[in-house]
């Protein structure tokens, strides 16, 4: 089953870094997932996240306010 990954952030450099890391991990490990960028502040607020970037996997907030390592993202996706 495909995972739904949402990256919450207004498009700041950290948000872009997180997007890059997550998409690299998906490609490198052949993971079935879709990435959705959520840049609308009202949409981000619905997740009750105050610090971005935030990583949401299947509607569960897994990381917020920092950029994860590739190994950390891979562990969360497995």
UniProtKB/TrEMBL annotation:
InterPro entries: Thioredoxin-like_fold, Thioredoxin-like_sf, THIRX-like_proc. It comes from Winogradskyella endarachnes. The active site is at 12 (nucleophile), 15 (nucleophile). Keywords: Disulfide bond, Redox-active center. The lineage of its organism: Bacteria, Pseudomonadati, Bacteroidota, Flavobacteriia, Flavobacteriales. Residues 5-77 form the Thioredoxin-like fold domain. Disulfide bonds join 12-15. This is Thioredoxin family protein. Pfam families: Thioredoxin_3. It comes from the Bacteria. SUPFAM superfamilies: Thioredoxin-like.
């Amino acid at each position: 089953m495909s995972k739904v990954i949402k990256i919450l952030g207004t498009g700041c450099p950290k948000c872009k870094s997180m997007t890059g890391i997550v998409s690299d991990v998906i490609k490198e490990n052949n993971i079935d997932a879709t990435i959705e960028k959520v840049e609308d502040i009202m949409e981000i607020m619905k997740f009750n996240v105050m610090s971005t970037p935030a990583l949401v996997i299947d509607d569960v907030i897994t990381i917020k306010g920092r950029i994860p390592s590739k190994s950390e993202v891979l562990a969360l996706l497995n």
